Amino acid sequence: RGPKKHLKRLAAPKHWMLDKLSGVFAPRPSSGPHKLRESLPIILFIRNRLKYALSYDEAKKIVMQRLIKVDGKVRTDLTYPAGFMDVISIEKTSENFRLVYDVKGRFAVHRITPDEASYKLCKVTKQCTGPKGVPYIVTHDGRTIRYPDPLIKVNDTVQVNTQTGKVMDFIKFESGNLCMITGGHNIGRVGSIVNVEKHPGSFHIVHVKDSLGHSFATRLGNVFTIGKGNKPWISLPKGRGIRVSIMEEREKRLAA
Fold first, then answer.
1. Mean pLDDT, residues 150-163 taken together
2. What is the pTM (predicted TM-score) of this model?
3. pLDDT (tens digit per residue) in 102-148
4. SS3 labels along the chain
5. How far is it, in rounded angstroms, from Cα 29 to Cα 20?
6. Burial of 116 (0-12, 13-18, 19+ CB in 10 A)
């Protein structure tokens, strides 16, 4: 019967923040560099986040004028899955956005400068040797980079120039470095890696401590290093990846 073509609105990921009643279906992300439940279709970004369009049709018209670029490439597919660390640029309004998680696990509308839009960080998911002994690495967004620096290993983060696709620099996965959590209960939190518990045959656990001194633990697969020491290589969204308790949040709201 082949792959599924539809996505019911209630089955859509919670962080898209679609309401229950205004329709039966949700835009099902095309297959692409990010997983279905960890991505945000372009249409939701244009229509539901930026409010540049009111309807599917208007969003389609915007995209079909080739105005939207993801990672420097024009994308005309409304349901193209943009995901973590992708740069969405709209030259007509000279705006650039990077998709990063806020502390509640949603993609924040995070505006960035044009020079920051020229690169993205990618987590190395596997490293192997291709035909004729060519070493290569594969990143979390499906890029294959040949002849990488031999010091780059799995779980490290590489800084990729989106124009050329070349590696500009890399961050080792080691304690003391700044990381963002990309899955699980602590999604969107930023902190420095304290240590890694190795559990052969099970999940490695990483202990992370944020700048206020709260510590938490998560699986290795959810950790994405974003900076050497405590200096991030990307700008962080509002709240800077620090989770506040609901009481603190309420006090902030009341103070504002």
1. 94
2. 0.89
3. 999 999 999 999 999 999 999 999 999 999 999 999 999 999 999 99
4. CCCCCCCEHHHCCHHHCCCCCCCCECCCCCCCCCCHHHEEEHHHHHHHHCCCCCCHHHHHHHHHCCCEEECCEECCCCCCEEECCCEEEEHHHCEEEEEEECCCCCEEEEECCCCHHHEEEEEEEEEEECHHHCEEEEECCCCEEECCCCCCCCCCEEEEECCCCCEEEEECCCCCCEEEECCCCCCCCEEEEEEEECCCCCCCEEEEECCCCCEEEEEHHHEEEEEECCEECCCCCCCCCCCCCHHHHHHHHHHC
5. 18
6. middle
Radius of gyration for the alpha carbons in the chain, expressed in angstroms and rounded? 19
- Distance, CA of 120 to CA of 205 (rounded, Å): 26
C-beta atoms surrounding 197 within 10 Å? 12
State mean pLDDT over 73-94.
94
Check: CB of residue 87 under 8 Å from CB of residue 70.
yes
The Cβ of residue 160 has, within 10 Å, a number of other Cβ atoms equal to 23
